[in-house]
Amino acid sequence: MVDLFRRKLLKTGAAATAMAAASSALGQQAVQADGTAFFERSGIRIRYQDSKRGFPLLIIPGGGLNSALSGLKNPFDTFGELQGEYRCISADLRNANTGQSSGPLEVDRAWDSHTDDQLALLDHLGVKKFAVMGFCIGGPFIWNLLKRAPDRVVAAVLAQPVGFRPEMPTLLYDGSMTGWGPDLVKRRPEITMDMIEKYLSNMYKKNADFVFTVTRDFVKSCQTPVLVLPDDIPAHPYAVAMEAAMLAPKSEVSLYPWKQPPERIPIAVRQIKSFLKAHRPAST
């Protein structure tokens, strides 16, 4: 009887060990060869990258609705410059043609659906407080994060943010109708150009003013420190970037232009680092 009991115990222990090993192997398989992983919720699949160590810094690449991890090195290598000091986290935007994230096209929640993804990813990774840096379309996303989660964002860097340009009122809408929508419809037959038109109208025409996602009054009342690095191309109006910086009570502004000549970029990067460090919680 003793020997029989011992054999059963050994078998049970071996099974438990095998299950633990299998679980570990599955966890390792979740991280792809390129260092990315996937997070899934309610029919939404988000590909993300996480450097895992340091105070969390959410990075939103540029590229409009084709914002994806492939843009993390433009105009400089964000992970390379910052992951030594911060836990850099970034993701492909849902339904970006250049990425691998996918989910429903929420026509009536064009901006908020993406903010949902960003906050859900941070929740999934166990992140409560974080800093955020966004390029291009990252500007409106950051203001929406500051509106939706003001107690979680400790500091924000808005680099070359998009904004509404009165003399070119349909610029961003038109660019997405030709440079994003048709390719998405080809990949996703359940999505139609009529849905794309309604989605982009809600994104860029419904609140066609300033930074799209918040009002000037909100920016005036925002107590989160923000650093603005302005640009001045059609989609990145200098006037809007500077107006936001003038309105925000805790704002800083970079030198301008900061990308040209390229020798200026390291100066801007140093300012980004010093700004983030100044507002990083002391306990980290």
Give a structural overview.
The protein is an alpha/beta fold and 284 residues long. The chain has one domain (34-279): Alpha/Beta hydrolase fold, catalytic domain (Rossmann fold, 3-Layer(aba) Sandwich), CATH 3.40.50. The chain is 42% helix and 16% strand. It contains ten helices and eight strands. The protein has an eight-stranded mixed beta sheet with strand order 1-2-4-3-5-6-7-8, with helices on both faces. β5, α4 and β6 form a beta-alpha-beta unit. α3 packs across α4 (138-148). The radius of gyration is 22 Å and the shape is globular. Residues 4-29 have low confidence and may be disordered.
In short:
This protein has about 280 residues and is of the alpha/beta class. The chain has helices at about 1-30, 80, 110-125, 140-150, 170-180, 180-185, 195-205, 215-220, 240-245, 265-280; strands at about 35-40, 45-50, 55-60, 85-90, 130-135, 155-160, 225-230, 250-255.
